[in-house]
Amino acid sequence: MYPKNAWYVACMPEEIADKPLGRQICGEKMVLYRGVEGAAKALEDFCPHRGAPLSLGFVRDGNLVCGYHGLEMGCDGKTVAMPGQRVRGFPCIKSFPVIERYGFIWVWPGDPAQADPAKLPHLAWAESPDWAYGGGLYYIKCDYRLMVDNLMDLTHETYVHASSIGQKEIDEAPVTTRVEGDEVITSRHMENITAPPFWKMALRGNDLPDDQAVDRWQVCHFTPPSHVLIEVGVALAGKGGIDAPQNEKAGSIVVDFITPETETTHWYFWGMARNFKPHDKELTASIREGQGKVFGEDREMLERQQENLLKHPERKLLMLNIDAGGVQSRRVIDRLLAAERPA
Amino acid sequence: MYPKNAWYVACMPEEIADKPLGRQICGEKMVLYRGVEGAAKALEDFCPHRGAPLSLGFVRDGNLVCGYHGLEMGCDGKTVAMPGQRVRGFPCIKSFPVIERYGFIWVWPGDPAQADPAKLPHLAWAESPDWAYGGGLYYIKCDYRLMVDNLMDLTHETYVHASSIGQKEIDEAPVTTRVEGDEVITSRHMENITAPPFWKMALRGNDLPDDQAVDRWQVCHFTPPSHVLIEVGVALAGKGGIDAPQNEKAGSIVVDFITPETETTHWYFWGMARNFKPHDKELTASIREGQGKVFGEDREMLERQQENLLKHPERKLLMLNIDAGGVQSRRVIDRLLAAERPA
Amino acid sequence: MYPKNAWYVACMPEEIADKPLGRQICGEKMVLYRGVEGAAKALEDFCPHRGAPLSLGFVRDGNLVCGYHGLEMGCDGKTVAMPGQRVRGFPCIKSFPVIERYGFIWVWPGDPAQADPAKLPHLAWAESPDWAYGGGLYYIKCDYRLMVDNLMDLTHETYVHASSIGQKEIDEAPVTTRVEGDEVITSRHMENITAPPFWKMALRGNDLPDDQAVDRWQVCHFTPPSHVLIEVGVALAGKGGIDAPQNEKAGSIVVDFITPETETTHWYFWGMARNFKPHDKELTASIREGQGKVFGEDREMLERQQENLLKHPERKLLMLNIDAGGVQSRRVIDRLLAAERPA
Predict the structure, then answer these.
(1) When you count CB atoms within 10 A of the terminal residue's CB, does the N or C end of chain A come out lower?
(2) How high is the pLDDT of residue A300?
(3) Beta carbons of C52 and B304 less than 8 Å apart
(4) Nearest chain C Cα to B149, which residue?
(5) Are C144 and C278 within one domain?
(6) What's the whole-model pTM score?
(7) Both ends of chain B: CA-CA distance in Å?
């Protein structure tokens, strides 16, 4: 159950740098590649000749050449040529709208007529030289909505990430959740606490002392179909928290683009954008490594939670205060799903 | 098809020494752990909050803490606490009766009201300082009853274990099978034969010559639901066989507790108890290693037999004299299954 | 969908040299072994006693002994003996007609009454001292007919085998396909071209220069149920191509015996027979290694093509000129399938 009329992150540019990439998104097996003038394109990964996956082929003069018998496919899904054949009557394959922006390749797996670029989220940090970004990709065997739940309720940090970003104060601080149109925002503020290891590292990276009390914040923003951006950070205690001056805090944005593959698997594009020391590549690498470890800790929990839910589909899960972010996000998703259903 | 109102071995104590253990028994996904004062406990492996497996959590003050969001579960399946939440209305999860005895953790996966400790088998060897025990655990992909068949017909030793405990005389000696209530006993006695390699080792371990003719015995005891204890041994020839004086024989008890996981998989707890040189830990380790190899030889045969039977469910298998032990054991199991069926 | 009344290659002799072999052919789980006087035999891989796979047993005095409890099975599927048992009433298992010829073990998985040795193809090269053969076996997860298609349309060499035997001239040269009874022949001739790497090696192996223009040919012969023999080679340009004198060309026969396991998996016996330097074992090994790499390149394409077709069973594939060989071969197969269907 995923909306198909939406922009999803399909891949990172480096994944199609050398050759086409086969990836299933929202049930659609696609081949992603760079066509004429390097523009990112997405087609059905199915050669109309004999059903070979086009992702095993290569690009020549902007066309995708099937690696089995050399059929040349255009970016509109119409066959351009084939050795020794007339191709006019060949059946078309689907092509999917693609946009490359903010350092990602985005795809619209649903009705192409509705693919409005204006529906892409605006990511200011991805366009500014004052920000740096580092991230990665995990393949997770669970419903993408379990990942949304996970990210919209950071209480789990205390337990799942006890050794890095978790701390007891998180689940002691109350959360507030509000809905603004299709956006769901869950906020938590902790005052006068000790910074956990990950944030001590970030403080040092920002030339701040790592042994003083801090105010910490987590503000999670869900936007459809399944993007979660989380403002996180710590400021030296009493300096204003999230609103403290830049030189008193270390803040960043946790970036999560969650792309369904099937009903029970998804691609998880994770990363962090920060606006301090944006040119320090070593710091970027170090944060990326730490974050990769943290997000790897969620995987076993989520995949085994999925197994449990599949074994007991009849059970109703609880919806507590801390779950409000996920619950509200699912309501937004349900609205989109209802809108896609034929009348 | 397994009785659920019965005591099964769930795990060995060392498996829950440091952290909770997730294990499926008779179709029930359980978490086994040590609660208040170290008492072994078993609960459904399903957090009532969001379905996370509780086995990924930890124990604090005798309660099981969910590793996802910190819900604290009591050993009765009722939630004790959760950070920032009232938990009175939370749904209960199943708890399973547990007994720790004889060096094993036993669980009753069926109706708790019928879980009578008196139904646990009495294992005298496990309580006596004159006996030593060593054993292990294998995961086997076949119906647990194929393992019962296997152990109640040791003819297979000649073929499956030709290089260790098998010998031609086994399948030449007749077996006798008798049923006493719910117990099935299959006996085989071989006289004046050469000891096979495993028993030569045991003779040497018992300070007896390993190059003389021996009398050998195998007396298999099945008791429900799926316990098989086998008296095995050799005595110097003509000294009385199983009844020979202690210093003329090397005898022991092969211990097999067979715990269904699903219809076609099971946990196989195997071991050997002996009443000679009980304090010789090196001998225990050596026997354990040898036995581990022997029981590993059964695995491929049983798993591929299972595949064959699944492919041909319509075929009736033969029930020969040598199969009487297994056949009678299955009749006992069938009686228990019938008794569990709702009227 | 495979004909069962046909001779298929079941295995190579070395696969049953030391012990019985379990292999599924056309849906039938078989055990292949050498019985009385070393004659190759095939039986159902199912012991009538308890369903154990007979392929885990061993041969004694020409009979197959079950490795579980010692049942002795004759090559006709009737139990010969069992320790301590009368076996007259034991049910029979299926036996399958077997012929060993041309360096292969052939089996007839269908109705034994129709198993006519005269229906075996005649392979002159396999009986002549002027020819050498080297080959191997791959397990491929696709419908065997996708492999027939692959081999009856060598256009794919340009794309799949670009670095070894492929070259642009292949898909530029027209193919002609003709049907002679149950045989389908697809021919392609290329004139005055550069030899690709594999053929340069063969030319050198035949003491011919590898830097001159050549004429190249590919003549594919399909015969039922799924044998494809391909005459391939190069001659120095203008010497007559396939008809050039022996010392002006390097030619050989690509040998492909394709044996279905299930509807979507098969055993692929591949090899090459050549009539130059037949005694040069190093050359045989070198060709075999090169060919093994080439045929390995087809595997991913075929298996992923199969996945695509299973996902889209409703789609009709195209049948182009280049596909005529495969299309005609499938017609022959369809005729055989229709003939096997009960009226």
Answers:
(1) C
(2) 94
(3) yes
(4) C50
(5) yes
(6) 0.92
(7) 17
